[in-house]
């Protein structure tokens, strides 16, 4: 069986980075900039006052100087004249600094008396002035690719760009398979269970910026599977995800269905727990991921394989799950022949980040996963560990 790292690399090879589209700035958060974006103006576009006070010539900003206030410059309403020696212009934060003035004395440092002020504290040249283009000039470019953060959106707005070219969202079809499954709110017979893991995957995909679509549950027949795979393909899915039916039982029909559909298999089965029956492949530009049905297995594989594929499709380069080090709160026995991604809770202490694995690690137990905030990695054949030893964890919330 191949390792998790090998499987991740193969999964990423199956994915194409999407085409670009133009979206309104307000919708661009988390999207990948697809082409360089150039500023349309300088910022600030004029020398601007950083404080409320008086714009004067620096030579007049000396203690005891009495100056005539000859006008007012407010944000959005500049003063058009030229400030001469012995003169001051009342100015407010964000307002254009008038010609002739090269310093702003803050109002706390003057005494105002009618149309005159007396300077109480001297000020130096250029103080309290933000020069034109201090933040950026019109030759400034935001380079692509770049995952757009919320400050990036403000920056792009200041560049006077209302729309942004970004990589399009990958369409991800989610297909639950199995005669035993029913959607939540249904009326299950005694032998049925509720399709659950698909809702976690849907939420994870939405958070990652993809466009997920929950397709109808496919019962355990070849015809039903073929039909829903076609439905996913007709919808235009970039990634088709099946859930369940991935293992070796008589009713595990996904691998032959993918073969019939013309999918070229990349791998089936990996040295991982939970998630051993994982499979992946591609047909043309469409990637396929066959997740195991056990709820925890499907969701853990979602974090380790599906989200990296989505990030790659969205043009991101840093796609693998974030890995950090934490110290064990309790000893652990020797690891097994599959890499174990244990459900665990980490805490940020003043000195250390610590991690505690749950006792129950069965891949059917959603209560355990719902209380976990990370996966604790035990590599293949990991040596026994003591409390305090460092381990790798992947935060999942
Ligand atoms: N003889 C062997 N048996 C099994 C092996 C093996 O290597 N040899 N592998 C085991 C492992 S590991 C896993 S994981 C499971 C996964 O098998 P499948 O992908 O075929 O999943 P199913 O059999 O369809 O379902 C497993 C389990 O999960 C429930 N399920 C399925 N889909 C959903 C869903 N959408 N929401 C909630 N629960 C779901 C299903 O009812 C089963 O209880 O195979 C082991 N067997
Ligand atoms: O690998 Mo399975 O996913 O252990 O339950």
From TrEMBL:
Question: Which InterPro entries does the protein's record reference?
Answer: MoaB/Mog-like_dom_sf, MoaB/Mog_dom, MoeA-like, MoeA_C_domain_IV, MoeA_C_domain_IV_sf, MoeA_linker/N, MoeA_linker/N_sf
Please name the pathway: Cofactor biosynthesis; molybdopterin biosynthesis
Q: Keyword set for this entry? A: Magnesium, Metal-binding, Molybdenum, Molybdenum cofactor biosynthesis, Transferase
Name this protein carries in UniProt: Molybdopterin molybdenumtransferase
Phosphoprotein as a keyword of this entry, yes or no, is no
What are the required cofactors? Answer: Mg(2+)
Superkingdom in the source lineage: Bacteria
* Family statement: Belongs to the MoeA family.
Per the entry, what this protein does is:
Catalyzes the insertion of molybdate into adenylated molybdopterin with the concomitant release of AMP.
**For this protein, what reaction is catalysed?**
adenylyl-molybdopterin + molybdate = Mo-molybdopterin + AMP + H(+)
This entry's Enzyme Commission designation comes to 2.10.1.1
Question: What molecular functions are annotated in GO for this chain?
Answer: metal ion binding; molybdopterin molybdotransferase activity
- Gene Ontology CC entries for this record: cytosol
**Per UniProt, what is the name of the gene that codes for the protein in this document?**
moeA
Name any Gene Ontology BP term. Answer: Mo-molybdopterin cofactor biosynthetic process
Q: Which residues form the MoaB/Mog domain?
A: 173-312
Q: Which SMART domains does the UniProt entry name for this protein?
A: MoCF_biosynth
- Report the Pfam families cross-referenced here: MoCF_biosynth, MoeA_C, MoeA_N
